């Protein structure tokens, strides 16, 4: 039983030495500090979770197929749920997506991990919007890619930069969030979507279209995904986390058959299958409730909060601070004057009782010192007012 | 929106070209063929799932903390659940394991993926029992290791082979299932556990101890894990899949702090956190039910089925067929005479209406042609009798 003297040393895979600083878990912890108003996280407002409806759905699952719900199942996911997802694409967007083209995952985050896993060799280039979603940067980093950031203009990713990068870097995929991007809050124009789809046709680069916020447009109107214009070159991921409940950890990905086969294989190795009980609850819930109505109510409320926050940026913060104008989703971005650093705002904000998200983890280069992400979905109007007042003190 | 002519070609990561043939999903599908008796799968008997008790637990979670259960949470897992796991280690095995040493995962399979992810560079050696668990081989393969198989003797992995491999191959970890191994059904002696723990002290190789079956010993007596004898060099994984319900996809891993930190980082990137609703249901269920009693009843029933199957191997199959003598778990292994191939038995069995699991996917070399895995947990006594009669026809 001898334990040799001294502390053991552990050897880790090289990827562990190439990870960015992690902010995600820190954010969840900050959000639990009493009295702190947090614009730093990315939580949906739990008051919109339909507890009663979800409980009724769970009751029915227990009653009608309890033992099945608790047993192992196949990797691809519960077929009736994939059918509901397929029907919703048809109804909302007029898209013909067969249930067989869909794989269920544990929320969008798992798609990020598995797409990178099946497509990326160390040193391969991944294109990503600049700024890009930090959860994606985190997931992709484990596969040791070279990141190449694409700056946006008002319509979406700069098309000339994109062209140059596509042909110079031979990237394996381009990751983007065309609907209410996280962190910027920007939405791509339809024209830009078509242009991106068109350009990809000439390359062996896939587009990874992350659509977590497409059902939260303030005007209630859906936007066509890039996938519509080039399905063979696009993987499209979606999630119930923002519109029903994140705790159920259920999302999906639609991909071209050959890609989906590889993805399914990786999913099986990763955790066999997603939580079947949750998949059945969601299916039952979708079949018996108007979930579009709920997400419209949510979007209307988020719009109100976004407007209050935008107005307060203008009223309370220095004129030198610019902000994006979201048309949906949960986030907006501020650009600071050169005299201020985003980490300084973050630390001073915490002291004042308000948390903002510094831009740094959204950049794969040394960017983010002049940008801040604000979340407007998780705070009430009162909290937004108080929080913005506290934030204004930071700039005095 | 031009789609260029011809089928697009996709580029995949190199690991995709190095995966073994997959059997897992195929098995779940076979298990749905009507009339077929399957000894090929690895399902627990769903009649032991305590539907009523789990529903009552779910009701309470909805009632008392519904909104929290449906919201995002931290990566490490629901603290009260980790506390229950810690308490059970103390009560069952006298082990002091702090809840902080435990990370919740989506069933043991996710631990397999993430451990390999944080420890393995392409070309690194992973030691694994020969035969070894196919789900582990599958998960590890994505990280392109070199596998090195350790044959067992009656007490566990051959200690001389292990020593040689440890010093010649400098492996990153050794993966094994000391309790009722899948696929062999073998259980390591306590002496061997101590020897393995001792040997590892002199190396930088970690032991990955997969304990999915430790609560299903027929005699109801727990065995001390290797971890007890060398906690700094051992990662110990467990699961509720075999003793409560696999559909809830909840397992855990206990690892030394430095390793757990890396693991937690990988878990966050992989899917943020495991299903919180299921974690809360399990916590409530464990706090209000005697789950040890249920697993003892399960083990007693499995023992009966194992004995019937063992007797029928002797009575119905040729004398040239040898079998292991499990003292717990869900599997036994048959060794065929040189004149028969395991794939032949598999294909002929399907035609006769009985599915067995050929040994091939449990070997990382060209082994497995003379071995077959039989599952005895998922079939009733009657099904075992009928299935073994059908199997006997294959050998006529």
From TrEMBL, chains A, B:
Superkingdom per UniProt: Archaea
Keyword Aminoacyl-tRNA synthetase: no
Ranges of residues in domain Aminotransferase class I/classII large: 54-391
Pfam short name (any one): Aminotran_1_2
InterPro entries: Aminotransferase_I/II_large, Class-I_PLP-dep_aminotransf, PyrdxlP-dep_Trfase, PyrdxlP-dep_Trfase_major, PyrdxlP-dep_Trfase_small
CDD domains linked to this entry: AAT_like (cd00609)
GO MF: pyridoxal phosphate binding; transaminase activity
Gene Ontology BP terms: alpha-amino acid metabolic process
Cofactor(s) needed: pyridoxal 5'-phosphate
Keywords: Aminotransferase, Pyridoxal phosphate, Transferase
The family this protein is said to belong to: Belongs to the class-I pyridoxal-phosphate-dependent aminotransferase family.
Assembly and oligomerization: Homodimer.
Protein name: Aspartate aminotransferase
UniProt organism field: Methanospirillum stamsii
């Amino acid at each position: 039983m001898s334990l040799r003297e001294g502390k053991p040393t552990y050897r880790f895979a090289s990827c562990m030495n190439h990870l960015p600083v992690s902010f995600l878990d820190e954010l969840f912890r900050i959000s639990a500090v009493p009295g702190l108003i947090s614009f730093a996280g990315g939580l949906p407002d739990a008051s919109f979770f339909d507890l009663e409806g979800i409980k009724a759905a769970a009751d029915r699952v227990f009653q009608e197929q309890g033992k099945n719900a608790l047993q192992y199942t196949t990797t691809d996911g519960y077929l009736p749920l994939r059918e509901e997802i397929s029907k919703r694409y048809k109804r909302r967007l007029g898209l013909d997506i067969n249930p067989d083209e869909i794989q269920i995952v544990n929320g969008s985050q798992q798609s990020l991990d598995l797409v990178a896993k099946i497509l990326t060799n160390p040193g391969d280039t991944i294109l990503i919007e600049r700024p890009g979603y930090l959860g994606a940067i985190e997931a992709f980093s484990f596969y040791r890619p070279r990141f190449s950031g694409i700056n946006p203009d008002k319509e979406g990713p700069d098309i000339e930069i994109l062209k140059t990068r596509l042909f110079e870097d031979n990237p394996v995929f381009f990751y983007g969030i065309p609907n209410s991007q996280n962190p910027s809050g920007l939405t791509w124009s339809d024209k830009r979507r078509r242009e991106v789809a068109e350009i990809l046709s000439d390359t062996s680069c896939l587009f990874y279209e992350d659509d977590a916020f497409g059902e939260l447009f303030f005007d209630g109107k859906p936007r066509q995904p890039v996938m519509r214009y080039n399905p063979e070159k696009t993987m499209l991921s979606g999630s119930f986390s923002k519109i029903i409940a994140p705790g159920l950890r259920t999302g999906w990905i639609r991909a071209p058959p050959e890609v989906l086969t590889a993805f399914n294989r990786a999913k099986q190795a990763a955790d066999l299958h997603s939580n079947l009980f949750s998949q059945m609850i969601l299916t039952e819930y979708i079949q018996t409730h108007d979930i579009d109505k709920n997400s419209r109510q949510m979007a209307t409320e988020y719009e109100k909060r976004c407007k209050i926050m935008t107005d307060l940026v203008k009223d309370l913060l220095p004129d030198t601070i610019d902000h994006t104008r979201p048309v949906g989703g949960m986030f907006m971005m501020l650009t600071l004057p050169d005299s201020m650093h985003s980490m300084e705002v973050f630390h001073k904000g915490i002291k004042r009782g308000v948390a903002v998200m510094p831009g740094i983890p959204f950049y794969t280069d040394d960017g983010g010192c002049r940008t801040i992400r604000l979340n407007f979905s998780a705070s009430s109007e009162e909290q937004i007012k108080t929080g913005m007042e506290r934030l204004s003190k930071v700039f005095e």
